[in-house]
Design goal:
Blueprint: H1 9-21, H2 25-36, H3 41-51, H4 72-90, H5 94-104, H6 110-121, H7 126-151, H8 155-164
């Protein structure tokens, strides 16, 4: 499967064309995942806006949420800016929880936990409470792991030893 990157805008347009031309649902979901993997924030924003368009079936939108590490902040900002529309479109069902989980869970900082909690304080609905709690728990776990790695005194030495070990 082709992926999209910042140096290959034509890759994005090519995949988008294939998405629009194919009738195969499985192909469309693979393409959405490939489009979202781009590290270019501008393309990620286009993909995120595209998944809210009538061209994408609502149950397929979640495949376009699998953004790469470089796109996490873009996706988070997009979610906040589009939350009302997402809530109105996807309501209290399973799909809205996927938006929360896919965009929030990959973060790995205690600052992001606070930011997410602050955002959802006035927007919390019973149907997303559990998913939001689980997503915040995942971010806390990720942040604790990052912190433990950063505090590991001999990590660089261990990695170097493993990298040059002759097997």
């Amino acid at each position: 499967m082709q992926t999209v990157n910042a140096s290959n805008r034509s890759g994005f347009e090519s995949l988008l064309r294939v998405y629009r031309e194919t009738d195969l649902s499985q192909e469309k979901t693979r393409i959405l995942g490939s489009l979202a993997s781009c590290p270019d924030p501008n393309i990620i924003l286009e993909v995120l806006n595209f998944i809210l368009s009538p061209e994408v079936r609502s149950q397929d939108a979640v495949f376009g949420l699998a953004v790469c590490r470089e796109g996490r902040e873009t996706a988070w900002t997009w979610l906040k800016e589009n939350w009302e529309h997402i809530w109105k479109t996807y309501g209290s069902g399973f799909l809205v929880t996927q938006f929360v989980s896919a965009i929030v869970s990959p973060f790995a900082s205690f600052e992001k936990v606070k930011e997410v909690e602050d955002f959802f304080t006035t927007r919390l609905k019973p149907s997303i409470t559990r998913t939001l709690k689980q997503s915040i728990e995942r971010v806390n776990i990720n942040a604790e792991w990052v912190q433990s790695i950063q505090n590991e005194e001999y990590l660089a030495e261990a990695v170097k030893e493993l990298a040059y070990r002759k097997y």
